[in-house]
């Protein structure tokens, strides 16, 4: 039975799903060195934001197939290292959207009405009404930085509270912003105009310290800023100075440059700051959503099925996957076949989606082809996660084309590999919804199902040659299951494809190439 390590608190609903297919060990608050020590025992790791999955953890994770992040941000996982090792990383892109958006809105209102400080004072037996006079959000301008899932929900609710929304998101269209009743503006204008600024962007090289001293200086002295996205988007030292010196009026933070928040001058700023300990996703509903979402994906991957929200392989909707699945098998088979025909080092692969297949998402098909191509060299080390990287690292140039006008079957896939020993091409189709057929080898039309052991010859189409190959194989006790010849013209060049029951014994390929008329012979194990 596979083993899953759950190293952060995860809702029981998720654990129950994992338990259907695996032994589940819940070990939270593990010191990093202990995680490195035990991770080699596990097939899957499920985390929230507490566990840091560093490259050391991934190096030690010899069995690991999947890392599931019960949440959105995967910045606590070294995704590049996981990808290199062929480990799938999945998250729950939508499970906590509402929770995070509502937390940002709650932070905005808490800050505006001094709720945390007022609450604290009443609990300390005081009754200071004047000290806690707040401001309204009605008719104020809210600047939303990042109009994705969370930012959109914040914008929609804020609109209903009478706020005007300015949004900055270079990857969102004007039309989408208009649908949300937001005006897309540049960042400087948003900084200058907004009464409230709320951040809903990932932390990237571009967004690190996006809110720095220079940005803060552009804001109004009445501006209040909310960060429920990621620590490090705000320069905390600059924020402290800006709050202390009245450059802006307030800040509400859920996330920090270092978590848990250690010693920080921000704690001394009284009612101008509201601080929560990364609670954005901490609702009962969100924790069930993300736990179930990620546990289901871990279960599926352990059962050999694809994950729906993998961050390091193209995600496919189940209905799309269902349609594409036979073509992924076809792509893998053709990649493997052409890789073996090419023999030596492959320098360039051409992948052409033809006929109806030309209208499909090519990315998974390309990845499946590369996986097949590299299988001979890398065996189980290559998978859907790392096939593209492995191909890139080997300097294989991948050319992807489409041709919807080729209508020989409903959809076909052409793959050619050019390498140190020459160029070979294969075409294949799916028959009857699931059966792989090879329909062309090196421009010779054939119609053969791929089998485990195959022998291919390139030869002159002349009498007697097929018989000679048959007798030769017989003399080596090789049983032929089926045979087919493809040719373009009578007595020209031809290709012969034989399915054989066992691997070809050593030395026989050389004997075959000595038969008069045989130009080349290849053996393939699929
Ligand atoms: N505090 C918490 O507990 C939680 C925090 N989060 C964080 O909230 C953030 C947003 O999450 P979602 O809305 O689900 O993500 P999303 O991917 O739906 O939206 C992010 C948006 O940011 C935009 N963006 C990317 N780079 C940008 C840039 N340089 N400038 C402006 N916009 C940029 C993207 O175009 C996208 O529209 C993430 O960082 C996520 O990790 C999410 C859930 C809970
Ligand atoms: O797991 C958590 O509570 C953190 C959620 C979060 O930050 C995220 O989903 O990006």
Automatic annotation (TrEMBL):
<comment type="pathway">
    <text>Amino-acid biosynthesis; L-serine biosynthesis; L-serine from 3-phospho-D-glycerate: step 1/3.</text>
</comment>
<dbReference type="Pfam" id="PF19304">
    <property type="entry name" value="PGDH_inter"/>
</dbReference>
<dbReference type="InterPro" id="IPR029753">
    <property type="entry name" value="D-isomer_DH_CS"/>
</dbReference>
<keyword id="KW-0560">Oxidoreductase</keyword>
<protein>
    <recommendedName>
        <fullName>D-3-phosphoglycerate dehydrogenase</fullName>
        <ecNumber>1.1.1.95</ecNumber>
    </recommendedName>
</protein>
<feature type="domain" description="ACT">
    <location>
        <begin position="454"/>
        <end position="526"/>
    </location>
</feature>
<dbReference type="GO" id="GO:0004617">
    <property type="term" value="F:phosphoglycerate dehydrogenase activity"/>
</dbReference>
<dbReference type="InterPro" id="IPR006140">
    <property type="entry name" value="D-isomer_DH_NAD-bd"/>
</dbReference>
<comment type="similarity">
    <text>Belongs to the D-isomer specific 2-hydroxyacid dehydrogenase family.</text>
</comment>
<dbReference type="Pfam" id="PF02826">
    <property type="entry name" value="2-Hacid_dh_C"/>
</dbReference>
<dbReference type="InterPro" id="IPR006236">
    <property type="entry name" value="PGDH"/>
</dbReference>
<dbReference type="GO" id="GO:0051287">
    <property type="term" value="F:NAD binding"/>
</dbReference>
<dbReference type="InterPro" id="IPR045626">
    <property type="entry name" value="PGDH_ASB_dom"/>
</dbReference>
<dbReference type="InterPro" id="IPR029752">
    <property type="entry name" value="D-isomer_DH_CS1"/>
</dbReference>
<dbReference type="InterPro" id="IPR045865">
    <property type="entry name" value="ACT-like_dom_sf"/>
</dbReference>
<dbReference type="InterPro" id="IPR006139">
    <property type="entry name" value="D-isomer_2_OHA_DH_cat_dom"/>
</dbReference>
<keyword id="KW-0718">Serine biosynthesis</keyword>
<dbReference type="Pfam" id="PF00389">
    <property type="entry name" value="2-Hacid_dh"/>
</dbReference>
<dbReference type="InterPro" id="IPR002912">
    <property type="entry name" value="ACT_dom"/>
</dbReference>
<dbReference type="InterPro" id="IPR036291">
    <property type="entry name" value="NAD(P)-bd_dom_sf"/>
</dbReference>
<keyword id="KW-0028">Amino-acid biosynthesis</keyword>
<comment type="function">
    <text>Catalyzes the reversible oxidation of 3-phospho-D-glycerate to 3-phosphonooxypyruvate, the first step of the phosphorylated L-serine biosynthesis pathway. Also catalyzes the reversible oxidation of 2-hydroxyglutarate to 2-oxoglutarate.</text>
</comment>
<dbReference type="GO" id="GO:0006564">
    <property type="term" value="P:L-serine biosynthetic process"/>
</dbReference>
<dbReference type="InterPro" id="IPR050857">
    <property type="entry name" value="D-2-hydroxyacid_DH"/>
</dbReference>
<keyword id="KW-0520">NAD</keyword>
<dbReference type="InterPro" id="IPR029009">
    <property type="entry name" value="ASB_dom_sf"/>
</dbReference>
<dbReference type="Pfam" id="PF01842">
    <property type="entry name" value="ACT"/>
</dbReference>
């Amino acid at each position: 039975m596979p083993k899953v390590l759950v190293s952060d608190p995860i809702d029981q609903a998720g654990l129950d799903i994992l338990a259907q297919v695996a032994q589940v060990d819940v070990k939270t608050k593990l010191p990093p060195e202990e995680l490195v020590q035990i991770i080699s025992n596990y097939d899957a790791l499920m985390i929230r934001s507490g566990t840091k999955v560093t490259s050391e953890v991934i190096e030690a994770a010899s069995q690991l197939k999947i890392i599931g992040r019960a949440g959105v941000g995967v910045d606590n996982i070294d995704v590049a290292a996981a990808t290199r090792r062929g480990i799938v990383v999945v998250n729950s892109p939508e499970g906590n959207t509402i929770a995070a958006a509502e937390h940002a809105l709650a932070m905005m209102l808490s800050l505006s009405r001094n709720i945390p400080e007022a609450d604290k004072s009443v609990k300390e037996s005081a009754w200071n009404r004047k000290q806690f006079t707040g401001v309204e959000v009605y008719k104020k301008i809210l600047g939303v930085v990042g109009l994705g899932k969370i930012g959109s929900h914040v914008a929609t609710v804020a609109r209903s509270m009478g706020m005007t929304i300015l949004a900055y998101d270079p990857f969102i269209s004007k039309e989408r912003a208009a649908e949300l009743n937001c005006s897309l503006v540049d960042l400087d204008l948003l900084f200058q105009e907004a009464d409230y600024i709320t951040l809903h962007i990932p932390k990237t090289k571009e967004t690190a310290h996006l809110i720095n001293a220079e940005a803060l200086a552009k804001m109004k002295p009445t501006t209040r800023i909310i960060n429920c996205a990621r620590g490090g988007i705000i320069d905390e030292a600059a924020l402290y100075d800006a709050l202390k010196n009245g450059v802006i009026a307030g800040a509400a933070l859920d996330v920090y440059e270092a978590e848990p928040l250690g010693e920080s001058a921000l704690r001394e700023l009284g009612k101008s700051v509201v601080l929560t300990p990364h609670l954005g996703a901490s609702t009962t509903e969100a924790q069930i959503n993300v736990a179930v979402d990620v546990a289901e994906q871990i279960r599926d991957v352990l059962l050999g099925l694809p994950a729906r929200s993998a961050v390091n392989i193209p995600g496919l909707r189940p209905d799309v996957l269902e349609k594409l699945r036979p073509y992924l098998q076809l792509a893998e088979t053709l990649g493997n076949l052409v890789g073996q025909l090419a023999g030596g080092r492959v320098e360039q692969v051409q992948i052409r989606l033809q006929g109806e297949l030309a209208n499909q998402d090519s990315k998974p098909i390309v990845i499946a082809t590369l996986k097949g191509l590299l299988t001979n060299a890398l065996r189980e080390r290559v998978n859907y996660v790392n096939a593209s990287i492995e191909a890139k690292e080997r300097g294989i140039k991948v050319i992807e084309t489409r041709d919807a006008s080729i209508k020989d079957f409903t959809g076909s896939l052409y793959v050619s590999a050019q390498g140190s020993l020459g160029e070979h091409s294969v075409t294949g189709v799916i028959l009857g919804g699931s059966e792989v057929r090879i329909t062309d080898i090196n421009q010779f039309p054939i119609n053969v199902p791929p089998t485990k052991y195959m022998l291919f010859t390139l030869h002159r189409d002349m009498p007697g040659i097929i018989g000679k190959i048959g007798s030769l194989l017989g003399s080596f006790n090789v049983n032929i299951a089926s045979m087919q010849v493809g040719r373009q013209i009578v007595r020209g060049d031809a290709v012969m494809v034989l399915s054989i029951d066992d691997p070809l014994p050593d030395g026989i390929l050389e004997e075959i190439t000595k038969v008069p008329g045989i130009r080349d012979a290849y053996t393939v194990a699929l």
